[in-house]
Amino acid sequence: MDTLLANNLTLGYGDSIIIDSLNVTIPKGEVTVLIGGNGCGKSTLLRSMARLLKPKMGEVVLDNEDISKMKTKEVAKKMAILPQSPTTPEGLSVYQLVKQGRYPYQGLTRRWSKEDEAAVEKALEDTNMSEMRDRAVDSLSGGQRQRAWIAMTLAQDTDTILLDEPTTYLDMTHQIEILDLLFDLNQEHGRTVVMVLHDINLACRYADHLIAVKDKTVFAQGRPEEVVTCDLMQHVFNMTCDVREDPLFGTPMCIPHGKGRCLIKQAQAEAQTKKATIS
Asked: Does domain 4-78+160-278 fall into CATH 3.10.580.10?
């Protein structure tokens, strides 16, 4: 299984530095989730790891080799990425989309094979999309569409899968559906999964390893139980909260402080108590 890491990585756009001198190693065969505030560089870091963004300094290393020096198809056979909110040409079927995952294995001397077909069929089966193979991708619901894209990344048959906010714009039911799917892929097939998530509680439930990004580098990393604390939430997200144990999963659960209906009820109760005392 391939090792993915960043050495002294500096990233940015133009003169703007987003990530500065970052070092991190992605645990093999585990689910790693990148967390942090908006604009902290999570997606930028993920794009660089997938060789979609050239570092200003440093390197991303895949299987002991600088990915900038590897051939595109060689990288694509080892690592797949699903960007945020991908789009497809109008009318493209699920089957046609998933077939595109086999592009690293095609060439002048190698045409579509039984092995390619088997990989596509397995990807459709693993994502429960076999019955929708002939449906147009743009006709699917958000959760179904995301499963189709994940099927394409699975057909690529890589040890490592990178996903940028795979649950964005999905309702709670479909968020859990997608995260359960990725969890099963990790547990049953040993895939290394790296993804960006905004929901801290879901990140804690599904991640083996968390990486919190702040001030252009890694602020903290480790098991969710080690990383997610009231102090971290204050420093990384500028948010005051309680951190308690999730009653179902035993993982950290953040309860943000702030205004809400419960405070209104509390104020009303205090007013009633005060009124009764005066009377």
From this structure: no
